[in-house]
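User: I'll paste a sequence; please echo it back and then give the predicted structure.

Assistant: Echoing your sequence first, then the prediction.
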Amino acid sequence: MQTDSQKPRSGANEGGNLWQVFDDIISKNIDMKKIVYLLSAITMLMTMAACSKDDDMPDDDVIWDIAPASVHIQIVDEEGNNLLNPKVEVNWIDEPMWIEYRDNIFEVEWARQELTPQTRAYLPHFYGAQWSGIWSDKDYSIYIGEFDGASSQDLKLTFGITAINTVYEFEFSHRLVWKKEQPHFDDHITYNGKKIEGNTLTLVLPKRQ
């Protein structure tokens, strides 16, 4: 014959040893205030961790159009003058240059390309290498792209200048990261073993003779 104390309590099978935990707390005279403080602290830490993680990710109701990733090569002299700027005398414009990407050679196109930010969703298209100036005279560069901005990119590129028979090998790394529900690009270039933040490689050359 079972006594009341021997009968299984309601929900014991579903709740595991929950009642046993309370019995232990009562029998061992554990301070309930300490238990409450401990549980509150654990709940607060879990909530903060969850909020911190979720705050970085975008809202599921928002559809983001991620801009393409690209690489820029600037050529300057020792004084910092942009030698791809048509206003600079004895510049390097129209000199044969090329890039190698995935075993393919792309000649630099010198026809002026006014690259402007896109405002509607479209698939990135690889245009090879183009001479471009986006915002101001100092931004004249060789533009290489486009690459998918929403995907991670680890690229090996070679840039060559035929007139001086010189090549420059470098790597480009691109990551899309979210900070407070906003997309940000984490880009860097590795050249001669050095990490360069951003997506621009600056080469120092003498003025063309």
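The two ends are 109 Å apart (CA to CA). Strands lie at 69-76, 97-101, 104-113, 129-132, 141-147, 153-161, 166-179, 182-191, 194-197, 200-204.
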